[in-house]
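Before we proceed, please read the two lines closing this message. Tell me what the token row says about the fold.
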Amino acid sequence: MFGDMLPPFFLLVLLFLALVSAAGGQSYSNITRGTTLTAGGSPDSWLSPSGEFAFGFFPADSNSTRFLLAVWFAATSPRFVVWNANRRSPTFPPGTTLRRTGDGRLSLRDETGTEAWSAGAGGAVAASVLDTGNLVLADAIDVLWQSFDHPTDTLLPGQVLPADGSLRSQLTDADFSEGRFSLVAQADGNLVFYPLALPTGNQHAAYWATGTSGTGNQLVYNSSGSIYYNATSNGTIVAINANSEYSPANFYQRARLDPDGVFRQYVYPKNSSAAGGSLRLTWNVVARKPEDICSALVSYRPGSGVCGYNSYCSSDGGQNQINCMCPTGYSFIDQNNTYLGCKQNFVQSCELYEQNSFTLIPVENLDWPFYDYEHYTNLDERQCSDLCLQDCFCAVSIFWRGGQECWKKKLPLTYGRIGSDVDRRALIKVSRDNSSVSVPVPVPFEGKHDRRQSISVVGAVLLGSSGLVNLILVGTVISMIVCSRRNKSQKQRSVTELNLRTFSYKELEQATKDFKEELGRGAFGVVYKGQLPSSSGSAKLVAVKRLDRLGKMIDDNGDKEFTNEVRSIGKTHHKNLVKLIGYCDEGTHRLLVYEYMSRGSLKEFLFGCERPPWEQRASIAMGIARGLMYLHEDCSAPIIHCDVKPQNVLLDDNLTARISDFGLAKLLRTDQTRTNTGIRGTRGYVAPEWFKSMAITKKVDVYSFGVMLLEIVSCRRNLETETEKEEVEEDAVLVYWAYDCYKEGRLDLLLRDVEDDRERMERFVTVAMWCIQEDPGLRPSMSAVVRMLEGGVPVAVPPDPSTPFSLFGSK
């Protein structure tokens, strides 16, 4: 602890400051008796002598509707709270006051005048927030109260957590109430991290401990910046971080039990010269315990795990933060508090269960390891999938190839974790349309009077006709009603299932001004710019793809093929895919209507006059990878694009990458995929297997993505024509030249516009080299590509693209 008794010299300083303040002199340290702070008012805080710390009312939300009574770093950006009062109910409304009373105490009163918190006893001569971040009240002899004796979730240099002391995390970074983890220096001498059950705070089994024993043990954060647990009885020291290179003279420091249960040490350079190296002028993590909370917290105990029920945890490749994610078909209960877990976006009920209404989405390296209700052995993945689909209770099945084992699980799922060391594949049950359950839309009552009037007319005719005529009329009317209802039902069902609008050819002629403004040409036809009227009066821009060439490619079943393909595209939704709005299927006219992408194609963006910023290019590359991963692995019916290239990647207002033309390749007849004239794709992006007697799989898209990734990194076209660039022939092909640069250690020729992010750029190039392997079996899946690009898994050195070698295997 800072000490039960302050040094006499320090007490003299406090006394002097008190006398100066009482005499009317200005002081940044002593809090004068009778002075008041008001939440949301002015003043709202008192500073330490150096101005590095502040004590007072800290906004607990962006709108300043609630406030903490807190101590915080005042000289950093962002500022950071290191202590706050009243943890059980930590926030207060505007108008709450803090007063140093006449007897020397600190008294917090709410807007009704009721005292909500107080510190110190009568007789305090001085009150100050020190440059150590410690709030102290003292008399002429002793310390009466100090915040270092009542830590919340944070320790500061010079502070000690004694035996029986503890830290308690916040619930979230935005919610300052007591959270789900505690760090306890136990009386038996063991320093232990516990998960807690909310709202009671009951402890579950520990997830990290020093394993020490004895009496008087202390967690010490010394003034040089080292953190260690000192077992005083036997001299054992367990280092949390023994590295003291970050001197408090040059760095602000704090150690915090974060909302995710990790105890992290942070440093903040006091100036740019102190930053240097890999540190930025912000809060940097330099140590943490445990190293991987996702792994550490996986234990057979009650509770949900780090991320809450029905979610799963990723430790971001062992870096400084974790990610909580929901499975496909699920969403967070509260987006602002992901630790509450995830909920299904569809109904899975045994009373209404139909096996054919569901499918299973495979996710590699994902497991919920506990609470399975059924276990099978000696079976393959297909059998494992079927067992879950046939079972109305089963929400997820976990398959282990190594042992041919299968586990069935029902909700809620707990302790989910994804990582390269998780040797399992999760098969997640979702609704086949992969969408939320829609609420039936009431049928409008427009036209009811007209229908009644028609029925009356028919009745009058029947009454005045002969029996035979009546029979004919009755049969005709019934037939008309049945057909009308069937057509209406089919139309309504189609619209409900697809959520698409059906256009007439005339509507699209008018929208495009008779197909006047061409946006681009593709393998299936021409794209035109159009405007659709809206109820608000403003026109909505769209892109209309006229599939004139499609009719030559499809057989007599073209109508059915087209309808099925539109259904497939209409059910495909992802932020990195261009959204289909509607279609026209009228006679020989087949058109698709897409949302309009204002920033054009990636080709125009990459190969224009100016080289786009690296951060924008990197973000676009990640978006394309995620879009392809969705098409390959997350759709209810996986889609192979077959023509991945910059022209088929469009950019919206925010430069978000959107893949276009997906799904159209399935309109080709299967006998065309083995002929040169029937090869899909574009020169330079086509995978080698198109030219061989090999199966066409998702790996053709992986190859094309690898080529395009090199283009994104280098801002150079895959194939340079003689008029565009005068080079030797082998340098005219980007993939050959890029590999030569990689092999010779001359990536600087590719990465000539980036210095600060060279490591990520080199990782992108290495991933591209894996994607363009000639053997499809060597190429990674798109989910592996995404993880490698994100840095979540290490990337091995790739072989020559034409050299046989296996690392990933086919998926």
In short: The chain has a mean pLDDT of 79. Residues 345 and 436 are 5 Å apart (CA to CA).
